[in-house]
Amino acid sequence: MILISAYCAVLLSFASGLLALLMNRRDMLLAVKRYAVKTFFKAGHGPDWLGKNLEEQRFPPFLRFSVFVLLGLSGVFAVLAGLGVLIGKTVITDQISLGLPWLPWHVRFDSLSGFFFLIIGIAVSAVSLYGPGYANSYDENRHPFAVLGLFTGLFVAGMLLVLLADDAFFFMIAWELMSVASYFLVAFQHENPANRRAAFIYLLMAEVGALAIILGFGVLAAFSDGFTFDALREAKLSTTWAGIAFMLALLGFGMKAGIVPVHVWLPEAHPVAPSHISALMSGVMLKVAVYGLIRFCFDLLGEVHWQWGVVLLVLGAVSALGGILYAMMQPNLKRLLAYSSVENIGIIFMVLGLSMIFMANGHPQLAALGFLAALLHAFNHALFKNLLFLGAGIIHHQTHQLNIDMMGGLINKMPKTSMLFLIGCMSISSLPLFNGFVSEWLAFQTALQVDVLDNGVLRSLIPVAAAALALTAALAAACFVKVFGLIFLGLPRSQHCEKAHEIQDKGMLAGPSLLAGLCFLFGIFPGLIIGLSNNVAGQLLGETLPNDAALSWLWLAPVSSQQASYAPPLVLIGALIAGCISFWYLRRNPATALRTAETWDCGFGGLTSKMQYTSSAFTMPFRRIFRSVWIIDERIEKDMQGAMNQDVAAVHYHLEVQDHSWPRLYEPIEHAVNRLAKLVGRIQTGNIRVYLGYSFVTLIIMLWVIS
Amino acid sequence: MNWLIAILQTTLFVALAPLLAGWVKCCKCRLQNRKAPSLFQPYRDLIKLTNKQPVVSEQASWLFIKAPYIIFSATVLAATVVPLIAVDLPTSASADVIVMVGFFAFARFFLALAGLDVGTAFGGMGSSREMTISSLAEPAMLMAVFTLTMTASTTNLSFAISHVLNEGLVLRPSFVFALAALVLVAVAETGRIPVDNPATHLELTMIHEAMILEYSGRHLALIEWASQLKLMLYGVLIANIFLPWGIADTLGAQALGYGLLAIIAKLAVLSIFLAIAETLFAKMRLFRVQEYLSFAYLLGLLGMLSHIILEAAR
Question: Which residues form the signal peptide (chain B) (predicted)?
Fold first, then answer.
């Protein structure tokens, strides 16, 4: 039953992709309808709704709607399947006789897959509520819906299949389906050269990553008989080979997940993809990469080493800090969100690293705590990052802007959107009462258990990592104050924003509302989701939380109630009481009703929107303090005029902030590849006789090798 | 009964906060050879502000009007977590010290947003500076607090304080570092000299005042009260974590009375030190604050490392 709903989710997403292909085939559908009516309905005309919806005017919206309905159903089935397997604590295996005849696809659906099914299901449901309204805004001739719908369906199906895969072949096929389908989505608006470049970088890095994963599986397979995960689990690896396999997996999955320094595709690809696609890529696809790493390290490799944990911890800390510092400097909203994904993935990696360290040092219960914090953060990040990307899509849809320096004052014009976006910002800044805080709290609780370790290096390293985590959280709050403040508050900085109004499409509000509601729900009742992910830890690590009994809906006390406890519902009640009392007490006197007046302008008059702080002004202190993190090109140019060129006619401010990884890492690689290509080019003379000679020599050598 | 005392303690916290601000002001005036205002002047100011009609800018959104209530509530919630006169109260179990830092972050988030809401340059400047300083101060604060929580192996403030109380007077190097770090952070976070000056409205130096420039009437009263509460919170944290003696560990009337007297005495002495420091030092340039705060961060980290290397039971 559970497996059937998992299959249903996959098939429905395929079906939604195929249905989208009918966009340009209205005539064919009409013919089919005529035939069907003739066969099945003697009266001569079929059901009314069918004929009506096939009319030329109504057909495109109807088809878009039905494509997203199928996608939404796929999401619902994924949620059901995920919940089913998580609650049932079962492992379901199956075989599908597809692919090569002697290589059936092995399917295994356990709690870990179920948990990520849940994440994908929720995200896909929200996106399919949002999608029809958003897709309507594309011009059908330039950006055909058939392409968008087809690859969205394939992309979702690919992600779901990755989670189901139980052998290396099937895993890689699903992985490539996911990568390639998302490449076409990134390249959707390909008329723009920057988009083509972003898509190319994405494809390149996805394929290099896939190669690393294949090699990682290869190392495992060399020590076992077969490519099924069952066989790979049995592989007995020496420490060195296990380390090599781990590094390959880390490179491959890390490239997809976007850890520093292999994160560069994220800030390029996310801004150019359609918003609901970037929501899926950032919210969900990165999590599939995290799933891959967890599956590979905790499940397939079996025994983890603390050195791996240290690698993950350090890489995670660098990604978290680097991600948020780079995010802060971006004026483009979607680019900023992409960098913030790097930060959050960094946090997940850090906590996974902690979990590995505790695991290898013989503290499986604390390992379970860290593992749970990582899973929970993955879940939470999927919720609020999806919410923020969908919100960014609404803002783009209404103002045709993504540059936050050009926005402002939208809170009065788009009250509903601003509320949803505010919830996203509060969750991602990990403020109490919202879900982001819970996972961060658990991460701190894990790090604070360092006292149990014996190794002196680890004992001093982990507190430093906790300090980095604290700094990351504080910087994230500053970054999202900037985002919300500049977009929604203050005076409008451009014509578009002045004329903007609230979005009319109900679906486009319903999708983010669903996510915002869940952000709040799991912020107040985190026990619901922690209870589910506890089962994952139980199945994968063989250990659950130290303090199982404390997992009630009210209290959160993961280690023991003596050590730490957090009761969000009580906190909420307290906040409501304090707020209501002060509100009631202060508002009781009618003589002190609000009076509105002009903003105080120091008596000079004429406050304009140009006098407000901009993104670069807001982040100036950070730019000075963390100077060496970026490559900063900041110039002030003056146009001079008049006699002796002494009068300033205009002042231009120019600021460019660049990522260190391009000149330090990628440009050397590019040069090396070019040099190699030139070397190889020497033997390519273009002369057919020489090529025939090469073939002949190769053939002779091969024959010699064989004999 | 426990809940009743917990609510009473919070009420006491909220009610005493303006008194502490008045006392600090008094000490400062004496030190600077000025005539001091009455100890109860902050209460009079708050009452005056609540009875005035607030003026709100035409550009202001709902966030601007609701923010003072949110800021005040978040600060009050932070106050419920910190043991003032007694440990072992139920409210301190509902949230631990990390959540308390989270409440501060919550209040600051809305304060900074409110600063940006009206769209003046001052507000933006204040928000930007406040977020900069707090994003450096918050990790330093967590480092200092983690030193305590690792010693007591709990993040629950009430249990941690009982732990220190039961251990008796032990000189721990880690606590000395953590105390120094927490004092530096407290000065920065409550906007006192040398980081910010609560008494001026000079545009070049303003941080906190710049954000709340547009507020008036009851909104201003709430924000002022919240910042007085924050000053008291930091004072109580320093006093009760590092010198917990006197705090009531049973809920008898006598113990509670002693607890109240003890905390009042501790805070009175602590404020004299604050007043002396504020008189001795001049305000720093804004871009020196990072050095000041990274020093605090370093102290916190040193405290943690010295705990791990020197003190942990291995």
Answer: none
- Contact in structure between A183 and A167 (CB atoms under 8 Å): no
Do A341 and A476 belong to one domain?
yes
DSSP H/E element including A616: helix A615-618
Task: Judge contact between A632 and A623, C-beta under 8 A.
Answer: yes
Domain end marker among A543, A574, A592:
A543
What DSSP designation does A285 have? I
B147-176: string of b/e by CB count within 10 Å (b at 16+)?
bbbbbbbbbbbbbbbbbbeeeeeeebebbe
Kindly state whether residues A310 and A443 are assigned to the same domain: yes
Contact state of B153 with A432 under an 8 Å Cβ cutoff: no
Q: Which of A404, A555, A571 to mutate to test the interface with B (most CBs of B within 10 A)?
A: A571
Please tell me the total count of domains within chain A: 2
Q: At what angle do helices B217-242 and B2-31 cross, to 10 degrees?
A: 100
E strand or H helix at A363: none
How many beta-carbon contacts under 8 Å exist across A and B? Answer: 260
Domain-embedded: residue A635 = no
- Residue B234: which residues within 8 A CB-CB, separation 6 or more? B182, B185, B186, B189, B190
Q: Are residues A670 and A528 in the same domain?
A: no
Of A426, A464, A619, the CB nearest to B109: A426
What's the rounded Cα separation, in Å, for the pair A437 and A341? 16
Q: Chain B contacts of A463, Cβ < 8 Å?
A: 143, 146, 301, 304-305, 308
In this complex, do B308 and A459 lie within 8 Å of one another by their Cβ atoms?
Answer: yes
pLDDT of A494 over the 80 cut:
yes
The minimal CB distance from A474 to the residues B55, B99, B134 is found for B134
pLDDT tens-place string over residues A155-199: 999 999 999 999 899 999 999 999 999 999 999 988 889 899 999
Chain A nearest CA to B21, separation (Å): 20
Instruction: Answer whether the bond into residue B194 is a cis peptide, omega within 30°.
Output: yes
A595 in contact with B, Cβ within 8 Å:
yes
Domain presence at residue A322: yes
Contacts of A441 in chain B (CB under 8 A): 98-99, 102
| E strand map for B31-135 | 55-57
Answer whether B174's CB lies under 8 Å from B151's CB: yes
Distance CA A266, CA A319 (A): 13
Determine, yes or no, domain membership for A613.
no
pLDDT in tens, B121-165: 888 999 999 999 999 998 899 889 888 888 888 888 888 888 888
User: DSSP label at A296?
Assistant: I
Classify strands B55-57 and A595-597 as parallel, antiparallel or unpaired. Answer: parallel
pLDDT digits (tens, 9 = 90+) for A209-255: 999 999 999 999 999 888 899 999 888 888 899 999 999 999 999 99
Where would I find the beta strands (DSSP E) of A463-597? Answer: 595-597
Nearest CA among A392, A383, A427, A420 for reference residue A121:
A383
CA angle B22, B27, B28 (to 5 degrees): 95
The DSSP symbol for B85 reads S
Which chain A residue lies closest to B104 (C-alpha atoms)? A431
Does the residue A362 lie in any domain?
A: yes
User: Residue A633 is which amino acid?
Assistant: D
Report the residue count for chain A: 707
- From B235, B248, B215, select the one nearest B66 (Cα to Cα): B215
Residue A463, chain B, CB below 8 Å: the answer is yes
Query: Which of A526, A543, A560 finishes a domain?
Result: A543
| Residues A666, A538 share a domain | no
Beta-carbon contacts of residue A407 (< 8 Å; ≥ 6 apart)? A395, A399, A401, A486, A487, A488, A492, A493, A494, A497
* φ, ψ (nearest 5 deg) of residue A137: -80, -10
Residue range of the domain that includes A674 = 662-706
Alpha carbons A75 and B231: distance in angstroms, whole number: 50
Overall average pLDDT of the B13-25 stretch: 94
